[in-house]
Specification:
Blueprint (H helix, E strand, L loop, with lengths): L8 H20 L6 H18 L5 H26 L7 H13 L6 H22 L2 H21 L2 E2 L7 E2 L3 H14 L2
Antiparallel strand pairs: 1-2
Length: about 190
């Protein structure tokens, strides 16, 4: 069985960043989502993450649990910074605050988000194929595809204008899913 401890910190970041990038890419594949669609897709993605915490594959389960821990640590750090703003004074904190402030009001880039997700997915799966058990690499790739597919199917989309039918997966979402499947090697 493959363990996260078998990888360097940078490689672990790559493995842990791919699921979030896939989720973001699937959410933005159809353009910037409206409020209801964003909630439906976010909920679908969260459900797949929760399911992964009890996944049959030990590696996928360990990645999901590590993601949950990482998010918990970030929330705790943000809460501590809110309670004691003076504690976050310093060059690193100022740089992080400047980067976050630069993101405020910036519209998402759907093409960039999907391209980043495909690239990060391909790199993470290639890393696992080179150094992990094949069944773990396959399970991880399938999990990433499941995230994208569930998010893409969460909200029906109208294609072709006002009088058109709603489709579960739009053409742009299908293109994203196909590119992601190719990055996973399926």
């Amino acid at each position: 069985m493959t363990n996260l401890s078998d990888f360097s910190d940078d490689e672990i970041d790559q493995i842990l960043d791919a699921p979030g990038a896939v989720l973001k890419g699937a959410t933005l594949a159809d353009g910037e989502p409206g409020g209801i669609r964003f909630l439906l897709e976010g909920t679908a993605g969260a459900k797949v993450f929760r399911e992964a915490q009890v996944h049959e594959n030990d590696f996928v389960r360990s990645v999901a649990v590590a993601l949950r821990a990482r998010i918990g640590e970030r929330w705790a750090a943000e809460e501590a910074a809110r309670k004691n703003p003076a504690a976050s004074v310093g060059v690193a904190a100022a740089a992080a605050a400047t980067q976050e402030a630069a993101k405020v009001g910036v519209r998402p880039d759907p093409a960039g988000a999907t391209a980043d997700a495909v690239e990060l997915t391909g790199a993470a799966v290639a890393l696992l194929r080179g150094r992990a058990d094949e069944k773990d690499a396959v399970a991880y790739g399938e999990w990433l595809l499941r995230i994208a597919e569930q998010v893409a199917r969460a909200a029906a989309t109208k294609e072709g204008g006002f009088f058109s039918k709603r489709v579960k997966v739009s053409a742009s979402e299908q293109v994203y899913l196909d590119r992601l499947a190719a990055a996973v090697g399926r």
